[in-house]
């Protein structure tokens, strides 16, 4: 049977409190010094790669924006004719990079 046993909980808390070790700042310092330091190479490389991709995509973005009115007239083939395959690919790449960056940031893998 489960339930709250206040007397037992109080005695148990007293027993743990009576034998709790005193804080040792030297021990804490040794443990913190022994922990491995995270390497910044991977986050920096990912950030630089993302920024480079965003720069390349942003460089192609004026072609995509200037042809926006022609793209509104239809889907698919008209968009490819108006913008060109390179600008369309760069626009899709920019959207993909933004989505990947958002997912990595949400997961906590990429700290910006």
Write the layout of secondary structure elements.
Elements: H1 6-18, H2 25-34, H3 41-66, H4 68-71, H5 77-83, H6 85-107
Helix pairs in contact: 3-6, 5-6
Tell me what you see in this structure.
The chain has 6 helices and no strands. With 112 residues, it is an all-alpha fold. The protein has one domain (6-107). It is elongated and about 80 Å long. The model has no long low-confidence stretch (mean pLDDT 76).
Total domain modules: 1
Mean pLDDT: 76
Radius of gyration: 29 Å
Tertiary shape: elongated
Estimate what percentage of residues fall within beta strands: under 5%
What is the SS-derived class? mainly alpha
Low-confidence stretches: none
Work out the oligomeric state of the chains in this entry: single chain
> What about the largest sheet?
none
* Straight-line distance between termini: 50 Å
Q: Helix fraction?
A: over 70%
Count of distinct strands? 0
| Secondary structure tally, helices | 6
Give the SSE order as H and E letters.
HHHHHH
């Amino acid at each position: 049977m489960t339930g709250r046993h206040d007397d037992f909980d109080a005695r148990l808390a007293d027993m743990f409190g009576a034998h709790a070790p005193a804080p040792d700042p030297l021990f804490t310092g040794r443990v913190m010094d022994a922990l491995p330091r995270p390497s910044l190479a991977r986050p920096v490389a990912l950030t630089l790669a993302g920024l480079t991709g965003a720069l390349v995509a942003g460089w192609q973005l004026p072609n995509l924006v200037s042809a926006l009115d022609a793209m509104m007239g239809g889907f698919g083939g008209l968009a490819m004719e108006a913008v060109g395959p390179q600008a369309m690919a760069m626009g899709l790449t920019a959207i993909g990079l933004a989505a990947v960056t958002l997912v990595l940031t949400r997961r906590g893998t990429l700290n910006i």
